[in-house]
Amino acid sequence: MVLPTLTVEARTSALRRAIAVRQERAELLADIKDGKVSLHDVLRRDDAVVARTPVRRVLEALPRIGKVRAGQILDELGISETRRVQGLGVRQRERLLHLFPSQG
């Protein structure tokens, strides 16, 4: 598959959009870490930033959850390391919320 050739303007526009999404995702993860946004709120949101965020990064942003514990949780719940929030099933969401009731 040959990629289309982008104009300078199209490339610049795409770069700006990518930077904005990264900034919004960083703000979301910081809000989770600070306790301003709960896991329940994150799982209920239906926007592209949350949908494309890896579940592992959301878990790591939760207070008192590090890389090792996040990996253990994903393994216990049968969630792939590379799964994004949009790809979570209903039961996986329920199990996450059950595991973190104070975050729900």
TrEMBL record:
Signal peptide: which range, if any? none
Pfam entry (one): H2TH_5
Instruction: State the InterPro entries in the record.
Output: IHF-like_H2TH, IHF_actinobact, Ribosomal_uS13-like_H2TH
The Integration host factor-like helix-two turn-helix domain sits at: 32-100
Know the name of this protein?
Integration host factor, actinobacterial type
